[in-house]
Design goal:
Nuclear Transport Factor 2, Chain: A, alpha+beta
């Protein structure tokens, strides 16, 4: 009889622990989802007068932000610290385009007070939202850059001509499908819960890439 009672007590304890753990998971998931929603709202509203309060709400002082244009640490697109992060976000809101987050299916994982997340987004640039050039403007901009660019002594004349042909074909090809560009974006981040509040330690924006990467290092 005592064995049966002990087993029942054991089952109750296990069930209680399971339910308690599941409740904690649901709570953490909801809290982190709320942080992601607040992050997305900043990009939707793009109110630069609120950027300091928005950053303080979501980021640790030593946050690391890695942008899509980043190649080196301690640059505008790969920065550490609240001040530089605010500059990056301000530039995004003014110039980058319309960033739309897929908040319906984020990937959220956590272990105690540390979480790592990833989600899909899209970036839309077009002349209509004032964040994209028309085909004519892009062609004209490139032609002007050719005229004023200082020749790169490390590149042969043939390589410079090929680069010009490459960029010309790229502009012509891309604009053949229209002047509105919708690019897929991957967003990932690391959060930590301190004093009952989740904040970002790191945020990484990236474009998917196929074929040759756009940036290539020169081997001396």
């Amino acid at each position: 009889m005592r064995v049966v009672q002990s087993f029942r007590i054991f089952l109750v304890v296990v069930l209680f622990a399971t339910m308690s753990g599941r409740a904690q998971e649901i709570k953490a998931d909801e809290e982190i989802s709320a942080v992601l929603k607040c992050f997305a709202q900043g990009y939707a509203q793009r109110d630069t007068s609120q950027i300091e309060a928005w950053c303080n709400e979501l980021l640790f002082d030593n946050v690391e932000i890695i942008g899509t244009y980043s190649t080196n640490i301690d640059t505008r697109e790969w920065c550490v610290g609240m001040g530089k992060a605010m500059e990056l976000f301000r530039n995004d809101w003014l110039n980058w385009g319309d960033l739309s987050f897929n908040l319906g299916n984020p990937n959220i994982n956590f272990d105690n007070n540390v979480a790592w997340v990833s989600l899909e987004a899209t970036l839309t640039k077009s002349p209509q939202n004032s964040n994209g050039r028309t085909a004519e403007e892009s062609a004209e901009n490139f032609m002007q850059s050719i005229g004023v660019a200082t020749p790169d002594e490390k590149k042969s004349s043939k390589l410079r001509l090929l680069e010009t042909a490459y960029m010309s074909n790229l502009i012509l090809y891309q604009y053949e499908t229209g002047e509105t560009f919708v690019w897929p974006i991957r967003i990932s981040g690391v959060l930590q819960k301190v004093c009952g509040k989740w904040k970002f330690r790191q945020i990484h924006f990236s474009y998917p890439n196929r074929g040759f990467p756009n940036v290539r290092l020169t081997i001396n």
